[in-house]
Amino acid sequence: MTDNQKKILEMLAEKKISTDEAYRLLNALGSEEGGQKEAPRVQTGTVLKPKYLRVTVTPREGADPQHADRVNVRVPMSLVRAGIKLTSLIPHDATDKINDALREKGINFDVRNIKAEDIEELINALGELEVDVETGHGEKVKVFVEY
Asked: What angle do CA 128, 117, 125 make, to 5 degrees?
């Protein structure tokens, strides 16, 4: 174990960082020390595939734990894959309604263009996804991929 890994674990034990932050720091540290800029790799040199899409919401510092909302959602990528494959079963008139609704929201996308062969590329691209938002009330929202 490196000194940096120990420091991260100490910060976690002292509750200076959350479990999610420690996980992400350890992953980033592993990527940096291995000289990697791509998806994390195991020692055999094979690329790890994203396993989960994570969404977390943590309350602001000092919030009353009994009244603070906390969210931790972990969606298996296999469910995302299945959902994408299911788009091929949507009836034609329903896809028109979906596409119209998306266009109304400013999203120019046709759900009929999703192809099974594009699923893995899409999921691998999600590996680069990282969204961090801090609300006006101090809650923190994070969306990221877990390996």
From this structure: 5
